[in-house]
Fold this sequence. Notes:
Layout (H helix, E strand, L loop, with lengths): L8 E4 L3 E4 L2 H17 L1 H4 E10 L5 H6 L9 E6 L8 E6 L5 E7 L4 E9 L5 H14 L4 E8 L1
Antiparallel strand pairs: 1-2, 3-7, 3-8, 4-5, 5-6, 6-7
Amino acid sequence: xxxxxxxxxxxxxxxxxxxxxxxxxxxxxxxxxxxxxxxxxxxxxxxxxxxxxxxxxxxxxxxxxxxxxxxxxxxxxxxxxxxxxxxxxxxxxxxxxxxxxxxxxxxxxxxxxxxxxxxxxxxxxxxxxxxxxxxxxxxxxxxxxxxxxx
Length: 150
């Protein structure tokens, strides 16, 4: 599938090594297995956005607590609900159809975003809003953005 897009080790930003561990691959494959088990992949188109970052602190946390997120037509809907694992969040588009599930991998500095649209809607609107937001508000931390369709 998209495992070739998961870079094992790459020199990024001033010669530092950013190693993308097997944790990133495992989380992506767990999403695939969950979707196949629920039958969700048959009725939904999914896109995975991988944001490789520098610096310290959770980019997911900064996104979810940013008061300017709504200016980009994005609404934070779920964040650290009891009973769910740490490091995840969900954003819905105000005008665009769909949702973005965010998962932060602290050891690798990678934000994995799974974009889900249903009922034949295309993901370009919500992806555009999200990428526009990332580059406007967090450009200094972003080393690379990978967009993969599934």
